[in-house]
């Protein structure tokens, strides 16, 4: 397992707290890993895959806001220019 470079954030999810850490990778290719963990759970993913997952979560959140009517589509398009 790679060494911790820095702790990115502590997040709360479903009543549990998770640490998100940036770590040196264990591969010789120099890619870094992201660890999402607490005392009962640990997920390790390459940094590139974590960024893809995070992008999907943010996009899904935005789409849900649109569906629930928090913004109408015309306002969103206007902000985009």
Walk me through this protein's architecture.
The chain is α+β, with helices and mostly antiparallel strands. Helix content is 36%, strand content 35%. It contains two helices and four strands. It has helices at residues 47-67, 73-80, and strands spanning 4-13, 16-23, 33-37, 42-46. The chain has a four-stranded antiparallel beta sheet. The longest helix is centred in the last third of the chain and has 21 residues, at 47-67. It is elongated and about 50 Å long. The N and C termini lie far apart (45 Å). 6% of the residues are buried. The mean pLDDT is 85.
Strand order of the largest sheet: 1-2-3-4
Uncertain segments of ≥5 residues (pLDDT<50)?
Answer: none
> What portion of the residues fall into strands of 2 or more residues?
25-35%
What's the total number of strands? 4
Order of helices and strands: EEEEHH
Key terms for this structure?
four-stranded antiparallel beta sheet; single chain; 4 strands; 2 helices; 81 residues
Strand and helix map with partners:
Layout: E1 4-13, E2 16-23, E3 33-37, E4 42-46, H1 47-67, H2 73-80
Antiparallel strand pairs: 1-2, 2-3, 3-4
Summary of the model, kept short:
This protein is an alpha+beta fold.
